[in-house]
Structure formats: C-alpha cells, structure tokens
Design a protein that fits this description.
It is built from no helices and 11 strands. By secondary structure, the protein is mainly beta. The strands form 2 sheets. Strands 2, 4, 5, 6, 9, 10 and 11 form a 7-stranded mixed β-sheet that branches. It has a 4-stranded antiparallel β-sheet with strand order 1-3-8-7, with no helix packed on it. The chain is globular.
C-alpha cells in the first residue's frame, strides 16, 4: 500500500524559511517523478513544483520560482521542498504527489504570519 507522509510545516514569519519533507513507501520511488501542490482556504489546489525521477530536472510555478526548491533523495525515498523568503500568500496546506498516479499525502499546514 502506497503511503506519502508529509512533515515540516508550521508557523513562520514573513521572510522566513521552512523545509517540507515527504516520505514515500510502498512504491518504487525512484521510478516516479514527484510534485508538490498547495491549497489555500477557498481556493483550488495548485501545482507548486515538479522533480523528475532522477532528480536532474525540476520546474516550479512562477509564484515560487527563485524562492522554493524541490529536491529528492532516492536512497531515502523522500522528496523535499525548501521554502525561503516566505510570504503571506504562501499560507496553505502543502501536499506531495506521485505524478501519473492518484497518490497524495495527507498534507502539512504552512502558515506565514507575523
């Protein structure tokens, strides 16, 4: 059974940083590209960033480009999202996702507030 467990969310001041982790189990992790998405109250879930199965190729939404970095450690079956210079509008529940599969984590809350 596939499990994705996110962690690392929390409360941070504007301009601060957080690193999210998503630990995967029950699937050949290194075979799949992965992504992070987020959802704010009253809004649709939006894509944040992608990473290829090898980790060599990454893409990010314009709203986070230059501030967020996606990475992965295939030896640890984990994908990360390093978030720097956080803004109020980054407040959301962040989810990891196995691309091309209907596998989602339970989400981790990120709140940016002074």
């Amino acid at each position: 059974q596939v499990q994705l467990v996110e962690s690392g969310g929390g409360l941070v001041q504007p301009g601060g940083s957080l690193r999210l982790s998503c630990a995967a189990s029950g699937l050949p992790f290194s075979s799949f590209s992965m992504s992070w998405h987020r959802q704010s109250p009253g809004k649709e879930r939006e894509w944040v960033a992608d990473i290829s199965s090898s980790g060599r190729t990454t893409t990010a939404a314009d709203s986070v480009k230059g501030r967020f970095t996606i990475s992965r450690d295939n030896a640890k079956n984990t994908v990360y999202l390093q978030m720097n210079n956080l803004k109020y509008e980054d407040t959301a529940v962040y989810y990891c996702h196995v691309n091309s599969r209907a596998y989602w984590g339970q989400g981790t809350q990120v709140t940016v507030s002074s």
